[in-house]
Design goal:
Blueprint lengths: L6 E5 L8 H8 L13 E6 L11 E3 L2 E12 L2 H19 L5 H15 L4 E12 L4 E4 L4 H15 L4 E3 L6 H10 L8 E10 L5 E5 L6 H8 L3 E9 L3 E6 L4 E6 L1 H9 L5 H26 L5 H7 L1
Antiparallel strand pairs: 1-6, 1-7, 2-4, 3-4, 4-5, 5-6, 8-9, 8-10, 10-11, 11-12
Helix pairs in contact: 2-3
Length: 308
């Protein structure tokens, strides 16, 4: 159940006082319901343990995990256009007249009324957890838009949710760029991998994969004014990840040291396995995030004060 990506939000009100029971009660206000006959999508809360649990939250190691399910009807615009075009052609041929815009709009509504109930549905799941100890909300997605939609839905469910994207003192793009400019600038516990994305103010982007990031070719781009907007590295021989200039973590992987720890955990049931994985993950991610804050100069408390 390890998260693959991470958007980090900080609770403005510290310490976090919400409990698992209280959060469960709040989430029951928006339990997932399948799409209605004419609905194109539906979003709601489901048990994070799936079939192994009924509660809308699960807590281990002072972390509260919860999951949203979104069902979306799959109805490509090209299919709708094709049906509309066929109906318009049929009318114009049979009645020998031109179909005007208003009638075309009405035909499109009729087509949607026919097709939406017959459309296939795709289900997606997104999980997040609240780190009570550190006052963070961590959402498992690489998409800023999806993270914001998730937080917005959670805020709508709860009535209020005082969280904001994490802010640090030093711009991650500038710091990560220096790691590549000077070989010794990269912290000892951060081992550069073989991928990065470089960009400049004009919008030019260079996507580097399977390359030595300290090579002259990379230096040439940096000297031309590009900065690092994404960087792949390993941390402390425990986690591999790609970090971007907004502190979004992508392609998160547990390395051999962590995998051995997970495999050694004694877990006989799916719930015990979930708890073991979740405990290890929350401990490792807390250590990683705190270390990231250190290398980027600490959290920007002044920025938080303006948002409060």
């Amino acid at each position: 159940m390890w998260f693959k990506n991470l958007h980090i939000f900080r609770f403005l009100e510290q310490p976090v006082t919400i409990t698992a029971d209280a959060l469960h009660e709040e989430l029951t206000k928006a339990v997932f319901q399948p799409c209605g006959k004419m609905d194109m999508d539906s979003m709601g809360w489901v048990p994070p343990l799936g079939r192994e649990g009924e509660s809308l939250v699960h807590t281990t190691n002072n972390g509260i995990i919860f999951t949203a399910r979104t069902d979306t009807k799959i109805l490509p615009a090209s299919v709708v256009r094709e049906f509309v075009h066929e109906k318009i052609e049929e009318i114009e041929t049979q009645q020998m007249r031109k179909v005007r815009k208003r009638e075309k709009d009405e035909i499109r509504e009729e087509v949607l009324f026919e097709l939406v109930p017959r459309a296939f549905t795709r289900s997606t799941y997104m999980s997040a957890y609240i780190d009570i100890t550190h006052g963070w909300l961590l959402v498992d997605t690489s998409s800023r838009k999806k993270a914001e939609e998730f937080v917005s839905f959670l805020r709508q469910t709860m009535g209020s949710l005082p969280v904001v994207p994490i802010k640090v003192q030093q711009a991650p793009a500038n710091v990560m760029t220096q790691w590549l400019v000077k070989e010794n600038e990269c912290p000892a516990d951060f081992e550069l991998a073989d991928a990065c994305v470089l960009a400049d103010q004009e919008g030019a982007v260079v996507n580097c994969k399977r390359q030595d990031l300290l090579a002259e070719e990379i230096h040439g781009h940096l000297e031309a004014g590009k900065v690092v907007t994404r960087l792949a590295f390993e941390w402390n021989e425990r986690l591999a990840l790609v970090l971007d200039d907004e502190l979004v973590i992508r392609r998160l992987q547990a390395l051999d040291l962590i995998q051995a720890q997970i495999n050694d955990a004694s877990a006989e049931t799916p719930v015990q396995r979930f708890d073991a994985d979740f405990t290890v993950m929350t401990l490792e991610l807390a250590a990683l995030i705190k270390r990231l804050f250190e290398v980027f100069g600490g959290e920007d408390e002044a920025a938080y004060a303006k948002m409060h």
